[in-house]
Every structure is written in C-alpha cells, then in structure tokens.
Amino acid sequence: MRQILSGMTPKELEAVVAGLGQPRFVAKQLAQWLYQKQIFSFDEMTNVSKKMRELLAEHYELGRRRPVDKSVSKDGTVKYLFPAADGRTVEAVFIPDHDRATLCVSSQVGCKMGCRFCMTGRQGFEANLTAAEILNQIYSLPEHERLTNIVFMGQGEPFDNTDEVMRALEVLTADWGLAWSPKRITVSTVGVMKGLSRFIRESRCNLAISLHFAHGADRAAHMPAQRPYPIEDVVEMLRHEDFCRDADEENPREGSHQRRLSFEYILFEGLNDKVHHLDKIVRLLRGLDCRVNLIPFHAIPDSPYMGASAEKLMHIRNYLTSKGLFATVRASRGQDIEAACGLLNTRHKGEKR
Fold first, then answer.
1. CATH class, 69-352 region
2. What digits encode the pLDDT tens for the residues 119-142?
3. CA 20 to chain centre
4. Which residue is catalytic, options 111, 115, 244, 341?
5. Pick from 48, 228, 246, 320: CA 20 to 30 A from residue 254's CA?
6. Active site includes 341?
7. Where are the alpha helices (DSSP H) in 102-192?
8. CB proximity list for 166: less than 8 A, separation 6 or greater
9. Domain spans of the chain, in order of start
10. Catalytic-role residue among 91, 133, 157, 164
C-alpha cells in the first residue's frame, strides 16, 4: 500500500526524498506543490524531474480526493460528501456569509461521544480520519480559495483523534504549509481533557467547548462524555489559561495570547432554558474571558427534544448579557439539506457509492 504525502512535515518529506535517492532540496519543492499549489497529480510538479515524479507515483499518493456528492441549501450553504478509507465517507459544510466563508470540517467518521441530540452521535464511531483526510476537505473544496474561516465542528470529537487533528492544524498554520492564521481556525470539543491539554500547549487556534447543560447531572443525562470529562473540571483547567473573548488579529491586545474561548449552548425547550439553568451558566463561567454561542436545536427523527423558540433565544441572550456574559445567537444554516448543527451523518452513504 502506497504512503500518502499529504500531512507530512518538511522533515518527513526529506526522508521521502532521501529514500528515493534524490537531493534534499526536492523536499521543499514537494511541500510547495502539496500545500501552497495544492495539486491533484504528480505530473503537475513541473520543476521536479520526470524520474522523481515517476518514483513518487510508484511509491506514494498525494492524498487528494475530490468530493463525490454535494447538496445545496436555499440559503447558499453547501454540504459536500468526501471519500475516506475503506469505502467510508464524511461530510463537510461550506457556509458563505457576505465577506466571510466558513468551512465546517469533520475529524472522524461518526463519533464515540454519544450525545443524545446529535445525528453523528447516533451514527456511532466508525473510524478516525487521517490528517490527509482532514486536510483534503479543505483544499479539495471547490470553493477553497474563498475560505476565511475553518471550524472543526463537523462529524466526530477532535480530541478523540488528537494526533491527526494536531498534525492537520500544524500543516494549516505553518509557514511551509497553508500558512493560515490560527485566529481563523476554531476547534470544538466536549472537553476530552488529555487532547484539550495538548491543544492548549501546542496550538494557538481558537477553542469552543460544547456545554449545552451547565449542571453536571443534567449534562450527564444527555451527554455521556460528562462522566469521564466533567464540565466543572474542564472549566477549572481553562481558568489557568490566557483567553481573549474578542481575539482579532487586526486588533491585538498587548500581553494576550489572543486565543478566543467560546461555549456552545443548544437551547432545548424545558430542559436547559429556565432561569435557574441560566444562572448556573453564569456561576460556572464567572471570571472567564469567553462568549456563549446560543444555538437553535435542529430536530432529528424519533427525538424527544424540542427546540426553544427564536423569541426565547433572544430573551436568553439578553438575560446572559445582563449578567455579564457576552452571548450571541448563532444563525441556523443549511437545515433543509441536513447540514445544520447536529445533523451530519454518513451511515450507509459510502455503501451507496
């Protein structure tokens, strides 16, 4: 089986070149073709010898695979289906919004976390994506040149696949890679502590925590990950880090790492939308420089959950703001093509192809 070049660091590419008996400088050329020019074929490497291209094609793959399907929402959101190993597939969602264009990428096929209100959780865990498969969602996206932001909020728990996610983040942000600003990238997690700790040490990308229930017992009833990763412990760890709620590379704050911290909170009618629920959020997050993103619940089949009304979302935003928490309401996008938050699911889709 041929190795995949996408996701390799310069040192790893140097080892590839040395193993093929070629001069060291060719590794730099490979990195440029892979990450900056983002080619689909070895034949496109016009400054690399024909012999080297033949050797590469014999022993390696680029790791580029175009999407096999797409769905377009009436609001302009586009959901792409990308191939993964062993006939599996993953979904990525392109969300254009005026001068901003965000890509929601997946880190796993399915998910182990088992959140009761999430279609990916229903799918269960099938496989970790490699760094190449994660990156492929980005630079094989037809609209990749329009992208301004990337969020790891698709299928899977990023820190249940920490090694590959961190490798993908390195390629995304390194000067030798895609050279993205880490301020344009956000990684979301339910709070898997070991991976989260490594992410904080090694990356400057923004962080989003899937909160949804501020009381531990409530959270455990709907989010099984609360038991091994209590939200109280996650927040306590975050209190020792340097965050900036309004991190913006164009308006740096002196002395700040400029990493933005946010908490995601889906509103469920009667379950987490009462005053005592909101006051628990305020107490839990008191003193953290963060924001709370309020998210409408998107109904899934055979679910007992009901979403709160738009009016209640605005009321809760105002209530949290009055208590000193910066809160926003996230607009729902792509619901008609099952691309909105919590709706991604690729069970059986690979089999159909």
1. alpha beta
2. 999 999 999 999 999 999 999 999
3. 35
4. 341
5. 320
6. yes
7. 119-123, 131-139, 162-173
8. 198, 199, 202, 203
9. 3-61, 69-352
10. 91
